[in-house]
Amino acid sequence: TSREPQGDVVEFIHDILVREWELLKSWLRADKRFLLWHQGIESRARYWYDSSEAPSNRDPGRLMPDGRDLAEAFDYLQHRAAELKALERDYIQASLALRDQERNRLQQLLEQTQQQRDQAVKQREITLARQLAAQAEMLTAQKSHDLQKAVLLAVESIKRAPSAQADQVLRQGLALLPCMRSGRTAGVPGG
Fold first, then answer.
1. What is the four-CA torsion angle of 16, 22, 24, 30, rounded to 10 degrees?
2. Within the chain, what is the greatest distance between any pair of CA atoms?
């Protein structure tokens, strides 16, 4: 550029710039998204880097969170790594590592929660089975007309959570059933 009395004037060093100006503009348009992204990543990476000289002490809160921005950065890292500075590549890789750590932590929490839920369901089944066995035992001890109900309760208890108590009640109930059908009570004098 030079100062002329009429104002600023631009001199082209080479006439090829004039002939290829449209091509240059189309390249800039095509690359605009990457160039804008690159400006942002450059400042974010510097901000993260400046948090500490030791890589292990850098603030993870300054890394990119999981989401669209990190996915875009990963894509550029894969396809345009040569155009990124080492600091920018390190920043993206550290962000990806943090994302993976967080996903692993969440997966472990999910698995622990699932195990706790499974244990709670199992404990509920055991409790219900004990209640059924206790009811069956009470009906069997009464040698009442509900002996069939006692046997069914014992069977359901065993299905839910096998136990010695339910097994014993089932055996006693089954032993008494034939006697009850004939009108006699086993073990009862005069029966």
1. -160
2. 137
Residue partners of 110: CB distance under 8 A and separation at least 6: none
- pLDDT of 12-64, one tens digit each? 566 666 667 787 778 778 788 898 899 999 999 999 999 988 888 889 999 99
* Mean pLDDT to the nearest integer, 171-184: 70
Q: Which of 116, 113, 124, 126 is nearest to 162 (CA)?
A: 126
Contact 175, 186 (CB under 8 A): yes
Q: Which amino acid is at 28?
A: L
How many Å apart are CA 136 and CA 151, to the nearest integer? Answer: 7
Confidence (pTM): 0.60
Q: CB-based burial of residue 119 (10 Å sphere; 0-12 exposed, 13-18 middle, 19+ buried)?
A: exposed
